[in-house]
Amino acid sequence: MKTKVTIQEIAHFTGLSKFAVSRALSGKSGVSDQTRDVILKAAGKLGYFKDNSMLSGELYNSHELQEPKNTRSSGTILILFPNVRYQNQDSVYWGPVFNGISSKLNQKGINILTLTEPSADQLFTLLNPDAMREIMLYLLRKGFKTFQFVGNIGDAHSFYERWIAYTSVLMGHGMEIHQIPELSNQALDEFRQTFTSVISEDNLPEVFVCANDFYGLYTIEALESMGIRVPDQCVVTGFDNLYDNIPLLATVNVNKELLGARAVDQMLWRIANPESNVEKKLILADVIIREQFGRHSG
Predict the structure, then answer these.
(1) The model scores a pTM over 0.70
(2) Can you tell me the distance from the alpha carbon of 244 to that of 231, in angstroms, rounded to the nearest whole number?
(3) 69-100 pLDDT, tens digit each
(4) Which CATH code is given to the segment(s) 130-254+286-293?
């Protein structure tokens, strides 16, 4: 029989201290809101709250919940592309997501209005962050020992979650983290100049773990411009499975149309149940390993 999840297990999973975990779970001060959010999400995932009254019927009665199919859908839904340069219908990532959204709304007979607004990238996140953990565990099993995370973790919450998974796996396996700050906090527009100024053959890691395939592509291009061969001298991983013609050792296949469709389902469910507890849906993704792009000798 499985024993109750302990604070130590949550600390190990998140890579944070037992003190921070204890303070967050008890609702006490001493941890930031961001750290508290990470801890509570991890605790929920591990089953810490399973027997807790917070998840019991005290908060809501299931018979009061309404399914969207039992409610009338009408009106117009606004689809916002906050960063029109990267988030648009022609994007290899956001295009399929938009198709999933529009197809589902069309099925429901709901009108669609799109709007672009150049501001922060804060659209929904539905991917299970365990996909990044799988990549990191694979890299450790292959014997890699030095890593750099690449991607602005302030750009999107999904990037931040991948960063948390990256660091928690390394810390959980006793690996030191020597992150170059500029590689995790610079805008994509400034990437090439920033990358080549902080990376040289003297401090070249064995693996660049990129927040998505865009960063993976730019990393490979920047390395090649410096005369550094991929995958001979180092390897690169990505996320989203956008390219099949660049040497990424690993990436994650994302069903982008399903992301859009399930986001619509969740939105309509929330409209039908505005007073219910906040929920977060996670969609499993497939980790793709391309052994031919592994580390070579020579």
Answers:
(1) no
(2) 15
(3) 555 566 777 776 666 555 656 676 667 777 78
(4) 3.40.50.2300
Q: By the 8 A CB rule, do 158 and 127 touch? A: yes
CA distance 86 to 90: 9
245: left (phi over 0), alpha (psi -120 to 50) or beta: alpha
What are 192-241's pLDDT values in tens digits? 899 999 999 889 999 999 999 999 999 999 999 999 999 999 999 999 88
What stretch of H or E contains 149?
strand 147-150
pLDDT level of residue 298 (50, 70, 90 thresholds): very low
Alpha helices in 15-58 (DSSP H): 18-26, 33-46
Q: Where are the domains of the chain?
A: 7-55, 68-124+256-272, 130-254+286-293
